[in-house]
Amino acid sequence: GEEHYNCISALHKSMRGSDENASLYWLARMLEGGEDPLYVARRLVRFASEDIGLADPLALTQAVAAYQGCHFIGMPECEVILAQCVVYFARAPKSIEVYRAYSNVKECLRMHTGPLPPVPLHLRNAPTKLMKNLGYGKGYKYNPMFKEPVEQDYLPEELKGTDFFKERKT
């Protein structure tokens, strides 16, 4: 029932708040109450990117490994795998930078009226002669061939100068 959602919310918020003791408590309460460990593991995968993100990019690897470990061995043995992951997440630095930036991109797309801007010609693949003749791929700079950073636009002209990590374009 509702307690299922209340407990996962409490676990999520305890990890977000860096409270390892409370995080372990809510995890144990769920598992000892019969919760599917794979459900918890899936939520940890989401938490790794949503709440920890780039502050510790290895968090996602930890979460996926915990999910796989739970899938391989099941309960009760997988409880320690989940406990390790939960404590790791509670102790990890947190960042919602990517989560916020992606939300800003979605907002930009939702607020856009009319057709979406086309992909700039230089970013399009040109597998045929016709496409090459139409200018597909023309002027594209292949970054690995340069020793220094390449100046090149990757967003459509209408979005030039937009930084989804800092602002929303409406």
TrEMBL record:
One of its GO terms (cellular component) is nucleus. One of its GO terms (molecular function) is enzyme activator activity. It comes from the Eukaryota. Keywords: ATP-binding, Nucleotide-binding. The keyword Nucleotide-binding applies. Residues 17-168 form the MgsA AAA+ ATPase C-terminal domain. The keyword Cell wall biogenesis/degradation does not apply. GO terms for biological process: DNA synthesis involved in DNA repair; DNA-templated DNA replication. PANTHER family: ATPASE WRNIP1 (PTHR13779:SF7), WERNER HELICASE-INTERACTING PROTEIN 1 FAMILY MEMBER (PTHR13779). This is WRIP1 ATPase.
